Amino acid sequence: MSVPIILTLLAGGATFIGAILGVIGQKPSNRVLAFALGFAAGIMLLISLMEMLPAALNTEGMSPVLGYGMFIIGLLGYFTLDRLLPHAHAHDTDISSDNIATKKLKRTALLLTLGISLHNFPEGIATFVTASSNMELGMGIALAVAIHNIPEGLAVAGPVYAATGSKSKAVLWAGLSGCAEILGGLLAFLVLGAHTPPVVMAAIMAAVAGIMVALSVDELMPLARQIDPQNNPSYGVLCGMAVMGLSLVLLQPYTP
Hints:
Elements: H1 3-13, H2 15-23, H3 30-57, H4 64-84, H5 97-133, H6 135-164, H7 167-192, H8 198-227, H9 234-251
């Protein structure tokens, strides 16, 4: 097995560390769960607006029209998916309020897992392609990716654990989001090699950034407020941004 594939496997596998941290102890309270949802929103907003979208727009050959167009397509794609997924409504008299909350939380956990997975997929491709062309740079990027995959795993596992009460399901769902990164690296290895067109990568990143922004603003933050109306979900959002920002700072010395 090639070294770039091993680096991609290690980077994606770090998600399991965060997943395990997310299920240690008892099932989280509403206050902790709301914080976790805000934390996840902060992570996704910072990644999308401060890393993925700027990187896409600054790619050689990428026009602003295409970059922002793909971002908008990502936004619209999220809302299309949102309409396709089932919703639980308070006027359904045969469903208790607790069941409504649980159903909504499960739906949010599904969207969160999907959003993180979509982010990780092109990230896996990028890790493999970079390591294939520059091993030293690839090792640095793989390390930084692994570090920021830990809070991503934590952000996915917490809501899933609260929704299902199952630690194994929480670790599995969070692990799946990390496996998307490994899948991206394997796809690059089997199909694309080290010659992935930069504009293609940039277009994918811009679209995924749009999906993640919409998920954070439309789903995660409102649900955090609904679950724990006594506290401000912004604290979780700011903490998520701070943790993810720190991991991105670690990546800077390795940026070409």
